[in-house]
Amino acid sequence: MKKFLGCVAGLCVWTAALVAAERGVLTQWSTIDALLKGHYEGVATLGEVKQRGDFGLGTFEALDGEMVLLDGKVFQIDGQGAVHEPGDAVRTPFAAVTFFKADIELALPAGLTLEQVQARVDALLPSANLFYAVRVTGGFAEVRTRSVPRQEKPYPMLAEVVKTQSLFTITKTEGELVGLRCPGFSKAVNVPGHHFHYLAADRKSGGHVLGLVTGEGVRVRVAVLREFSVKLPESASFDALDLSGDRSKELHAVESERK
Ligand SMILES: [Zn+2]
């Protein structure tokens, strides 16, 4: 896509730079620790989010399910596991998105676990110090997901909500994992390491990924993101949060599968 800048002394200037500059940027609203503290007030509309990316993940106002942004469309996997396409006016309290362009590609064999997929991806990355968007497409023997039910005010902490999460095991499925890999130094702001949400190709199931087993034809594409932009909420409730302290253990408990 090119943008027309105008004509100066008969010289017309077109540039792809304005568009290209949007690639390689991870744009995020709010912080993961604010979400852990129960800050589920919407801070941006989905319309605003889509202006900053066509690929990413997050949640919805009132913690109303898991968000997948894929190929410019937002999907909501609600607390019952049903998939919706919410309108652009719906708001999000936390989302992280980018315009996806693959820099690294990899084919994966069948039979790998989530941890093995993550290790194969990590082995290809140029550095642990960058952000990455990770898109995994293909067949899966099994994807284990969760979603969270919509909350009412006063909002409980995320660790409390997750005790009531719904778990889903999706078997013999084709679809896409929409993921981010964030560096260790991003803790408190985003989720260090890999974080995947799943959307089945038939758009009938998905959620926050807790575990999986790969099937046939799995392809990984990774986009290297060297710019990280965080939009902090303009709200008195955000301003009043106590975001001091280390919530890493709480985050790990919230994001992973209980064993
Ligand atoms: Zn998630």
Describe it for me?
The protein contains 7 helices and 17 strands. With 259 residues, the chain is an alpha+beta fold. The protein has a single domain, classed as Hypothetical protein, similar to alpha- acetolactate decarboxylase, domain 2 (60s Ribosomal Protein L30, Chain: A, 2-Layer Sandwich). The strands form 4 sheets. Strands 8-7-6-5-10-3-17 form a 7-stranded mixed beta sheet. The site of zinc ion has 5 residues, from strand 14.
Please describe the structure with a list of short key phrases separated by commas or semicolons.
259 residues; alpha+beta; 60s Ribosomal Protein L30, Chain: A; seven-stranded mixed beta sheet; six-stranded antiparallel beta sheet; 7 helices; globular; binds zinc ion
Shape: globular
SS-derived structural category: alpha+beta
Unreliable residue runs: 12-18
Tally the helices. Answer: 7
The CATH homologous superfamily name equals: Hypothetical protein, similar to alpha- acetolactate decarboxylase, domain 2
Strand numbers in spatial order across the main sheet = 8-7-6-5-10-3-17
Domains, number: 1
Oligomeric state: single chain
CATH hierarchy: architecture: 2-Layer Sandwich
Bound ligand species: zinc ion
Mean pLDDT across the residues is 93
Number of strands: 17
Binned strand content: 35-45%
Gyration radius, rounded: 18 Å
Report helical residue fraction: 10-25%
What sequence of helices (H) and strands (E) makes up the elements? Answer: EEHEHEHEEEEEEEHEHEEEEEHH
What is the CATH domain class?
Alpha Beta
CATH topology group: 60s Ribosomal Protein L30, Chain: A
Largest sheet: 7 strands, mixed
> Termini separation (Å)?
47 Å
